[in-house]
Amino acid sequence: MKIAILGFLLSFLSFQFSMAQEEGLKNQIIELSKTKWEWMANKEADKLAELFDDQSVFVHMGGSWGKEREVNIIRSGGIWYKKAEIHEVSVEIIDNTAILLNRITLIAEVGGNEVTNPFEVTEVYIKKAEGWKLGSLSFTKLLQ
What we know:
- Helix content is 40%, strand content 49%.
- It has 3 helices and 6 strands; from the N terminus they run ααββαββββ.
- The protein has helices at 2-41, 45-51, 67-76; strands at residues 52-60, 63-66, 79-94, 97-110, 113-128, 131-141.
- A 6-stranded mixed sheet has the order 2-1-6-5-4-3.
- 15% of the residues are buried.
């Protein structure tokens, strides 16, 4: 009987530890995403180039492209992500992949014109030896 209770207690503690670790990972991804939005607002293209995986993809209202083009667009000011007002955020962890959903209002300057759009943004992060890398960033415009 004592062994069964001890086994149950160890299982319960292991489960609690696992849940705490996952919450910690989710919070780490949320903070990384917030930092990414700050770097985008400040046009810190070099920092973003480090964060973006070499095979990353970006999906916008006007098309999709890879890392090099996204970094160059940010560096040149072709798209200036001035401010992302985050309304909701959620994260799911699957093995070494984190999927973050942001419901945002984005204030951006595109081709010299300031625009404000509501988006659901999907960010996919992959855990690599050197840390978390952004694998995909996709904007889905919301109707409001």
